[in-house]
Amino acid sequence: MSSSEEVTVSAAETARTLEKPVMLNGTVVKGFGRGSKMLGIPTANIPAQPLERELEGMSTGIYAGWASVDGGEPYKAVLSIGWNPYFKNTEKTIEPHILHTFDEDFYGAHLAVCVTAYLRPECNFPSLEALIDGIRNDIEVARKLLDGEHHVSCRSRAVEVASTPSPSPVPVPEAASEAGAK
């Protein structure tokens, strides 16, 4: 599917658990300023280039997982990995939306995301309203999906990695910890 095609894809129909979780981590950087301002859905962007190895086997699209900021409590997250066809991005981005309300911005913080599910391919939308509706649908699908046993078992991994500042990506071990964080 071409990223320029207008398609409506429901995450509820295409969501699947990843065979092995993927750990993405990096320093939170300023993005394009669209998440909060234009969409009302803030994102905590991390640079894609240092994570090329981890992204190599991943299709562009919308994913779900657990995110931890500076080793704090893990929260459910939905993330876009790709080119954002509606906005015609010229660079690949990683844009997690953490399903928690934070009191302030945390640019420069260490963000770790344990990606456990693929929700849908990235696609173009016919309007900004349709894009926002699509993202809201992704959020609801992720909320439910991440309550599953396989996904909950990955919560603590995001905290563990976020607690250990590392400029390079940290791989997820074969067996994810069964212990959940509080």
Topology order in helix (H) and strand (E) letters: HEHHEEEEHHH
Q: Give the helix tally.
A: 6
**Strand arrangement in the largest pleated sheet:** 1-5-2-3-4
Distance between the termini: 41 Å
Query: Which runs of at least 5 residues are low in confidence (pLDDT < 50)?
Result: 1-7, 167-182
The radius of gyration computed from the alpha-carbon positions, rounded to a whole number of angstroms, is 15 Å
Outline: globular
Strands, count: 5
How is the biggest beta sheet arranged?
Answer: 5 strands, antiparallel
Mean pLDDT: 84
Strand-residue fraction?
25-35%
* Secondary-structure-derived class: alpha+beta
Task: Describe what this molecule looks like in 3D.
The protein is 24% helix and 26% strand. With 182 residues, it is α+β, with helices and mostly antiparallel strands. The model is unreliable at 1-7 and 167-182 (pLDDT under 50).
SSE topology sketch:
Layout: H1 11-14, E1 16-27, H2 35-39, H3 52-55, E2 61-69, E3 75-82, E4 93-98, E5 110-121, H4 128-145, H5 149-152, H6 155-162
Antiparallel strand pairs: 1-5, 2-3, 2-5, 3-4
